[in-house]
Amino acid sequence: IFGNHEFDLPRDKLFARIGEFKGTFINSNLRNHSTSKLPRVFDRAIIRARNKDGSHCRTIGFFSMLTNAKSCYRPGSLGGATISDPWETAKEFSKKLKVQDEVDLVIPLSHMYVNDDTKTCNEFDFPLIIS
User: Fold this and answer.
1) What's the pLDDT tens digit per position in 46-101?
2) What pLDDT does 36 receive?
3) Cα separation of 131 and 128, whole Å?
4) Is the predicted pLDDT of residue 10 greater than 70, yes or no?
5) pLDDT score of 72
6) Inter-residue contact 46 to 97 (CB < 8 Å)
7) Residue 33 pLDDT grade (very low, low, confident, very high; cuts 50, 70, 90)
8) Alpha carbon distance 12, 24 (integer Å)
9) Contact 113, 67 (CB under 8 A)
10) 126, HSE (Cβ side, Cα atoms, 13 Å)
11) 16 φ/ψ angles, rounded to the nearest 5 degrees
12) What is the CA radius of gyration of the chain?
């Protein structure tokens, strides 16, 4: 997922770093940013997990929660993009993943402060938050 320090880099350096990365970026609440149009950048991701003998399979959906604390970003670093409220994003993507994508489990990937993760724990029933 993206964090606030990715936006400390100039745009061309950020895009170069993204190009070097061979994995998937999950970007759920950074809206209207130029990185959203890049290959391997998705608003959510789904994996299928099976036990060793393959008799049990579960689908797990992931979305990201990037802090929207303005103090974490240098002025102009987001290039006009906006960061949606993380908890509204959690509601939106939890519903999309459960209803539309029919996953068995939803796990948020958080890049926020500990007190924000505590709020997420108190307001949602996610079995795990990866922060």
Assistant:
1) 999 999 999 999 999 999 999 998 888 888 878 778 889 999 999 999 999 999 99
2) 67
3) 9
4) yes
5) 86
6) yes
7) confident
8) 19
9) yes
10) 28
11) -65, -45
12) 16
Specify the pLDDT at position 75.
83
User: Residue type for 90, please?
Assistant: A
Quote the tokens at residue 72: 């974490």
Q: Which two tokens stand for residue 47?
A: 């994996």
Q: How far apart are CA 6 and CA 89, in angstroms?
A: 20
Q: Strand locations in the chain, DSSP E? A: 25-26, 30-31, 41-42, 45-50, 57-66, 82-83, 105-111
pLDDT recorded at residue 89: 96
CB atoms within 10 A of CB 94: 18
Provide the b/e sequence for 29-60 (b: ≥16 CB within 10 Å). bbeebebeeeeebbbbbeeeeeeeeeeeeeeb
The residue behind tokens 């950048």 is 41
